[in-house]
Design goal:
The structure holds three protein chains of three kinds. By secondary structure, chain A is α+β, with helices and mostly antiparallel strands. Chain A contains ten helices and twelve strands. Chain A folds into two domains: 2-184, no CATH class; 202-326, no CATH class. Chain A is globular. Chain B is α/β, with parallel strands linked by helices. Chain B is globular. The mean pLDDT of chain B is 95. Chains in contact: A-C, B-C. Chains B and C meet through helix 2, helix 3 and strand 4 of B and helix 4, helix 5, helix 7 and helix 9 of C.
């Protein structure tokens, strides 16, 4: 027996949720689909492949105040940022939910990042399984699946009479309090997603390829913008700076990326990744070698956003295939 | 715009001509509204367009750049360049929704104290009518 | 999709690499969607079969010459790209004698996007006034002799809006900006080693990704391209959140044309309007 929620019941439930909490959902804005807080159910896009930017920004905002300090009466008064409002994200895909869980690795270490931890605690994820993976999707190659429920609190799957509902966590159960679910015979379809990207053994293959001229050649066309890192659900690098206005100093954290020139420049001017090849190699070594060695899973969930967004078609699927093929060929090193 | 005080105008005055002109207004006891906050620069050509945009981004209601009359620049050519830069900047800002009239460039010589005060008075009046802006 | 040009480019590339005239040929190849082109760097004559030229060859390859460290390089250029080359030569960023220019008379490129199949010409191609490369060592295709007059209807449409409407429009756009700097990285006119937005002393903009800073970023970048932008429109194409950047550049392009009768990138000796002046000109400033 499958538990099902009708479409209009779903809409009223979401309407209820947004009264006490911030409801974040996919919204169509011109040609884009973006996760934003919504004020009304009419704003929600229910039929979409995936959003242009990942929902990581509700845990790791593009700009966030960490704390403020005021020097008052000879004392420094520090006020850390506090996340006090509950948030519900509706429509998050299994790949993106996995991305957030992957970022828990670095962010919920010892000690945990206080803001990430607070966002996680205050947020409930209503996942939406994919009924038709898009051409750029390859989650099945990267340890997930279009109906992977591992990292959400509730998983919805579109079926004929509405949405099949799977309650995964206690948080999800609490959110569904008072919501009537129907029993149904309908079976949610589990579609297939691209499982052909050869990610098995990629960690070893990338390690062997470190000195290969492949990276330098690939970087020839890379323009070193930050697009791939910013759209990626598992990229989590940041920059921190203090800003003073009047008596108040604010410490803020923003998105940054290993691709920018100068990301690794240190005092004195030396930059260990000054050349393009090193910087581009870093991104793929991080995702496919260093991260799995440190935390376990590969640092890529197969959402395909980087594939779509890269202005010069640097395609991680192609790179994984190439590295597996060339194996341990040692070339002339980077330029 | 502060509640009682009216529009916030930032003025960039070149040291040799327009700042001296403003001084002359002062020594001649000619008054003009104190809404304008004056910043002295060596030459109008030194005023980087980035500074102007920053003023508007921070919430200035209006910006005035005053320099020597073309041909009389203390550094010979500074104001010829600034004339070109500001002609384009003014159009760009207007295009982005910062009304042309909020950004003015005037040539004021050291002896034009009265004229300086008239320029500022008129500018302040016009900005009162145009209303205030928010910082972005 | 191959065209006449594809074979000619492959043959030329093979010749240049085999006889050592160049160390690298920068052209286009088809990307992983099997539809849209991407930049290709060919070092080995055996690889020239990768090269194609079709109506998805949107990228401006000229900027890559700045990375080649003076090594003799061949590059495929369309009309707009050739203006970028003129710009970089005029600004002394490149040396003419180590570049072999394969000019292509381009009929226009279609909307570009991964896995996107389109017949629709990009806006900048509809408005193109320079189909024939101005600079070339070999020219493929028949030069176009008649070019349409300038058309700034899109700029006029924006100007017809009220000041408040324009402010609201750009407020919405700058809220979307994520400061990925793809626009800057793709732009041939943006080659400063230390971009103003990364300067720390003074810190003009700051790292905050927020409307105020984003407004500063987009406005000043557009201004720094005044009299220099060659309308290749790569900035708008690469933007991941579809900000209509071309509007800003085209507004300035129109002003520069009206005030100074100047079009950027038309010759390798041109002097940009903002680094010169005419003593008696009337520009509506201070009058």
């Amino acid at each position: 027996m499958t538990k099902v929620l009708g479409r209009s019941e779903l809409e009223s439930w979401l309407g209820e949720i947004m009264r006490e909490r911030t409801l974040v959902a996919p919204r169509r804005i011109d040609d884009l689909v973006l996760f934003t807080p919504v004020q009304s159910v009419d704003e929600i896009a229910f039929d979409f492949d995936n959003t242009n930017l990942s929902p990581k920004e509700f845990f790791f905002p593009r700009t966030e105040t960490l704390f403020t300090t005021v020097y008052k009466d000879g004392e420094v008064e520090l006020t850390p940022a506090v996340i006090d409002r509950e948030t519900v994200i509706f429509g998050i895909r299994p790949c993106d939910a996995r991305g957030i869980a992957i970022c828990d690795g670095p962010y919920l270490g010892d000690p945990p990042d206080s803001l990430w931890a607070q966002h996680r605690e205050k947020t409930t994820l209503i996942g939406l399984a994919c009924t038709r993976p898009a051409p750029q999707c390859f989650c099945s190659s990267m340890g997930s699946a279009p109906n992977d429920s591992s990292n959400v609190d509730i998983l919805l799957t579109e079926v004929e009479d509405g949405y099949a509902v799977e309650v995964i966590t206690e948080k999800g159960e609490n959110l569904l309090q008072g919501v009537e679910l129907k029993d149904s015979d309908v079976k949610p379809v589990a579609p297939s997603c691209d499982a052909s990207v050869p990610a098995d053994g990629i960690v070893e293959a990338v390690k062997k390829s470190f000195d290969d001229i492949y990276w330098s050649r690939l970087a020839d066309r890379c323009i070193h913008c930050n697009i791939c890192a910013y759209v990626c659900p598992t990229c989590y690098c940041f920059d921190i700076r203090d800003y003073k206005r009047g008596d108040v100093i604010e410490r803020i954290r923003t998105w940054e990326s290993c691709q920018s020139k100068g990301f690794t420049r240190i005092a004195g001017g030396y930059d260990p990744r000054a050349d393009k090849g090193s910087r581009l190699r870093q991104r793929f070594c991080h995702k496919l070698l260093y991260f799995p060695e440190q935390f376990g899973p590969l640092g890529c969930v197969g959402c395909g956003r980087c594939v779509v967004a890269c202005p010069v078609n640097i395609d991680i699927r192609e790179i994984i295939s190439d590295i597996q093929e060339t194996g341990a060929k040692v070339g002339q090193g980077s330029n | 715009m502060s509640a009682d005080n009216g529009p916030r105008i930032i003025g960039f005055l070149c040291n040799w001509c327009s700042y001296a002109g403003a001084d002359m207004a002062g020594t001649s006891r000619i008054s003009y509204p104190s809404n304008i906050r004056i910043i002295r620069v060596p030459c109008s050509g030194r005023v980087d367009p980035m500074i102007i945009v920053k003023c508007f981004q921070e919430g200035a209601d209006a910006v005035l750049v005053a320099g020597c009359h073309p041909g009389d620049c203390h550094y010979n050519e500074g104001n010829y360049y600034s004339r070109r830069h500001f002609a384009l900047l003014r159009e760009l800002l207007d295009f982005m929704g910062i009304d042309k009239e909020r950004f003015r460039v005037e040539w004021v010589s050291a002896s034009e104290g009265k004229r300086f005060s008239q320029i500022v008075s008129r500018f302040t009046e016009d900005m009162k009518k145009m209303g205030s802006r928010e910082a972005v | 999709m191959e065209t006449e040009y594809t074979k000619q480019i492959r043959d030329k590339a093979r010749e240049l690499l085999e006889n050592g005239t160049v160390e690298c040929v920068i052209g286009y190849e088809t990307g992983t969607d099997g539809i849209n082109a991407r930049p290709a760097f060919i070092y080995d004559p055996a690889d020239v079969e990768r090269l194609v030229f079709d109506n998805t060859c949107s990228h401006n390859l000229v900027k890559y010459l700045l990375n080649m460290k003076g090594k003799p390089t061949a590059v495929v250029v369309k009309g707009c790209d050739s203006r970028a080359l003129n710009l970089l030569l005029a600004e002394k960023q490149l040396q003419r004698d180590n570049i072999y220019v394969i000019g292509v008379v381009c009929p226009g490129v279609v909307e570009w996007g991964w896995n996107k199949q389109s017949d629709k010409l990009q806006k900048r191609c509809v408005l193109c006034r320079q189909h024939t490369p101005l600079i070339h060592d070999i020219l493929l295709g028949e030069p176009v002799t008649e070019e349409p007059p300038p058309d700034f209807t899109d700029v006029a449409e924006m100007e017809a809006m009220s000041s408040e409407e324009r402010a609201a429009f750009w407020q919405e756009q700058v809220e979307r900006c994520i400061r990925c700097y793809a626009c800057r990285q793709a732009c041939p006119g943006c080659y400063c080693i230390d971009c103003f937005v990364e300067q720390l002393d003074p810190e003009w903009v700051g790292i905050r990704i927020a409307p105020g800073e984003n407004l500063m970023w987009n406005t000043i970048r557009a201004f720094h391209l005044a009299g220099r932008c060659v309308a290749c429109n790569e900035c708008e194409r690469v933007c991941p959140v579809n900000i209509p950047l071309s509007l800003l550049n085209r507004k300035l392009e129109q002003e520069v044309l009206d005030l100074f009768d100047y079009r950027p990138g038309m010759s390798e000796d041109a002097i940009a309007p903002l680094i010169t002046f005419k003593k008696d000109e009337k520009l509506g400033i201070g009058e």
